[in-house]
Design a protein that fits this description.
Elements: E1 3-8, H1 12-23, E2 28-34, H2 37-47
Parallel strand pairs: 1-2
Length: 49
């Protein structure tokens, strides 16, 4: 089973670190990265998560 992950973080460096960490876990797949809640909601709808 693969889990889709949407990372929401306003600090670009922290977001990048989190993305790299999650991508190392075989069962997880980063499907998007958002810098705000509004952006995350829009990504959620556009990616149909």
């Amino acid at each position: 089973m693969t889990y889709s992950v949407l990372i929401v973080e306003d600090d670009a460096m922290v977001s990048s670190i989190n993305k790299r960490y999650v991508e190392r876990i075989p069962e997880f797949k980063v499907t998007g990265v958002a810098a705000s809640v509004k952006e995350a909601i829009n990504l959620n709808y556009s990616l149909k998560l």
